[in-house]
């Protein structure tokens, strides 16, 4: 499994003869497990047809910014949110100049401006255009704003000249992309993460649960691993694949979750409580299936232990992150929870919007800690997880100094 496995990669193609290499790049991305969608500028379509790219990517190719049909199907904002990662290959001198100035008059530049995901540019152009101070300064400025650049190669060019400006080969772009999903921010740390819902049985066939899919907790486990941490994931019943290198324990009830966490917490430096733990459980668990008899059925519930509070209270030196899913007064309630649950960082999400949060691939959250807060724009859970891990790592390192 590569770091690109199950990732949504948006491939932007601008006008350059190197566009033929993008066909190969789609294949290599798919071999790495990524789902690919393609956006082409008008001049890119002069070099290679959208039909070729559609056949290879197995998805419709997007070319128009102001087009009713395409905007209603998947518009520039949806595409910007859909992408876990953006690759612009080839990135022409003109496209680079447009990005430098924050222009958004075509679909590709509008997406680059609207996304919260990382962007990798693979420049391709004539060697004089590449070496021109205008291009060099544009690239330097984009780098300083967080763009990644796959440096073009030196060699024979389609125009007959020789020099730097040949687009990097697809395999090089893939290996660079793979490394961008990795860092050593949390190397040497052990992280314990809870994920998913819990199931609280009433009898052998029925239980109380909630809509949590576990996607956010699993995305955090993967992001923490990619940042170099050793990750132990304690999860309620979910239908998800265990991320590479993550040690997983499956549990059902809140009590099972607490016991498993307490067993692994002594060796953990950081605890992330992402599970949607049932606050209550049936007071009695019938050993036989409950029969329907009367018109009304009264169910008595008792409080479950609060996993994150227990762990944070018992292991005071551990850095603890909790979640707060709220439907109203989101930030006030979240700030309160940061204090009452003795947490170092809290991720608050407004679950009143059914499009994001529970069971969705997207999320939009605010991070709250004792000395600050940050709002993260709507993006995939993979992108949000990476941003949470980056903030957590900075605060964790700070707390140890
Ligand atoms: O109090 P509330 O349920 O909103 O708090 C949410 C946070 O507390 C999440 O981090 C969740 O994982 C954790 N929690 C827990 N055990 C519970 C209830 C919530 O660990 N019983």
Number of strands: 19
Q: Which ligands are bound? A: cytidine-5'-monophosphate
What assembly state would you assign to the polypeptide chains in this entry?
single chain
Poorly predicted sequence stretches spanning 5 or more consecutive residues:
none
Please report the first level of CATH classification, the CATH class of the largest domain.
Answer: Alpha Beta
Going by CATH, the homologous superfamily of the largest domain would be CoaB-like
**What is the CA-atom radius of gyration, in angstroms?**
24 Å
- The name of the CATH architecture of the largest domain is 3-Layer(aba) Sandwich
Distance between the termini: 36 Å
CATH topology of the largest domain: Rossmann fold
Structural domain tally = 2
Main structural class: alpha/beta
Shape: elongated
Query: Strand order within the widest sheet?
Result: 12-11-8-13-16-17-18-19
Proportion in β-strands: 15-25%
